[in-house]
Known about the structure:
There is one protein chain. This protein is mainly α. The protein has two domains: 2-176, Growth Hormone, Chain: A (Up-down Bundle), CATH 1.20.1250; 181-352, Growth Hormone, Chain: A, CATH 1.20.1250. It is 80% helix and 0% strand. Helix 5 (119-140) packs antiparallel against helix 8 (221-241). It is globular and about 50 Å long. It starts with a helix and ends in a 6-residue tail after the last helix. Residues 172-181 have low confidence and may be disordered.
Amino acid sequence: MFLLSSFFFFYFSGVGVYIIFLPKILHSIGYTPMQIGILFSAVPLMRFLTPFLFLKFFKLSKKVFRYSLFVSLLGVIALFWTINDFYLLLLNIAIFGTANGLTMPYVDTIALEKLKTDYGKSRLWGSLGFMTTGLLLARYLQGYKIGLYFYLGIGIFIFLSGILISFNSKEYNLSKDRSSNKTFSLIKNWRFWISIFLLQVSFGFFYNFFTIYENDHGISLKMVSYLWSISIVCEVIMFALQDKILHLNILKLIKFSIAVTIARWLLLYLFPSSLFIAFTTQSFHAISFALFHTATITYLYRLYTQKKLSMQFYHGISYGLGGFTGSLLSGYFYGEYLFLIAAFIAFLALLFTPNSSV
């Protein structure tokens, strides 16, 4: 459990650098919002495409996992040479996204096999790592190279903990579970798939530009790191309490989560300079992310007999394709109406959410 918890801690510490600070770093060295949107669309696009390639042509084996760790580390190192060239940076991020997208499915599989009901206790360290990164970098980020060196240090620990996990786990082949895939249908439940896609499009606006948006409205980078931290605290609390909620109607929980997300984006649009509103909306993360994520996975688990395939499509369509689209649109629409547009997209997600499974 120690190795898995360590990996989660360092992996999501790296996610914290990528989400919270890299957009600000790129903005500070002259990248436009549109360029930042394009750059940050590369990882979710590869996340969407890679599972299809691996299900058809490859195996997610120990060897591939180790290669993905190595390429991910090279991608972090390459940031020092590619960060000032848009096209080289785009290529670097795309390759990094492909490799990085293979690590979590492998580690999650190992964690679920070994820890079973204790999985959440281990995964909790990921949230703590994300929060720790936000607090530390906000205090010590003086120039973009400090952020890159911090990212490199985390990348080394991700690589080392991942390698140790691979030596302490049995071989696992993610492509072995292909039984009954031919009967899997997205079209039958098309409204729900469109709904989760649209909601993640709206989240693309938040993940890519929340730091820059609040900074541009007079909230310091240090205070923004506290805003990110409070969202993680609320997320952890919701994950801890979720077993007391999921006995309720799942689709109603999903609709409630989307409605809260709409309110969250609207408040950010209406009160962009209010620190109180910013903290309030970040507390909504417990519902708009944690509750939505858990309720959606539960719904899909009950809806489809092909459990693993439905989870793969969930991550691919929502965080992959939805995140990719949201990244592109957020770069194009960045400005005064950013979160008003995000709220409208989330409202469309609510309209597409079905009233019952079909």
